[in-house]
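Okay, any thoughts on this one?
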Amino acid sequence: MIKSMDEQRNQECTLEVMNVDTWERRQLEKFSQVIEAPNWTHDGKALIYNSKGHIYRYELDTKIDREILTEPVVNCNNDHVLSADGTSLAVSSFDCDNGCVSRVYTLPIGGGIPKLVTEQGPSYLHGWSPDGEELAFCGKRGGGEYNIYTIAADGSEETARTAGPWLDDGPEYSPCGKYIWFNSNRSGLMQLWRMCRDGSALVQVTKLDRNCWFPHISPNGKKVVFITYRVGDLLPNEHLPDKAVEIWIMDADGTNPKILVSFQGGQGSINVNSWSPDSKKIAFVTY
């Protein structure tokens, strides 16, 4: 389950933002190489994305981007998130000295030498708890399927929060810190689920005739956006690039789901939370 193939995709893409209230859609920048997974910084001034194994900060006022140095970790994929206080960045990166297995690291937001968090792999990061104490990731252990795990931010023992023969992915904490949202194909199609932080009280939130991936909760906790693929375009356990996709939005209780925007994209478009800090806009990548 490779979560980033941008090094194989030298196609043009566009970094965009959209106001979820007015539906105003704006192109920020066109790139000659693939960029992926924009995070909005907590001060609202920049977007952080990955490209060809490296992490970059794109300044919204000047449209200048600069690399956030992560050496010797230089095979970063499209799973990266910011700490709640905005001082740290967590990334997933392939360790090509050890079978090119993805592991999770943390580092200062301005760059620095990353600290290894997950000794085991593959581990693909998706969430950092609001209290800063815990990371949530999608991991595969032994001969099983990918499931949801949490681990203390200092890298102590990890804990499986789901277990089964299905694929669970995209774990993200609610702003209140009580819940973890994720996507799973345990009911057939890929759909969105929510559970308590300890893995209890699982609830299926969406029941759409689409494969739904990567729930992202707005900072104010009121809305959720996610990306969908049409049934038949791929298998429920696949999230591929360069497909006809949609970003949907719904209330945090799962009601009022509707299409927000349609475009050519998929893998890398909105893998991680890309809400603006004021909960008014999202950022995404189109191909």
Summary: The first strand starts at residue 13 and ends at 19.
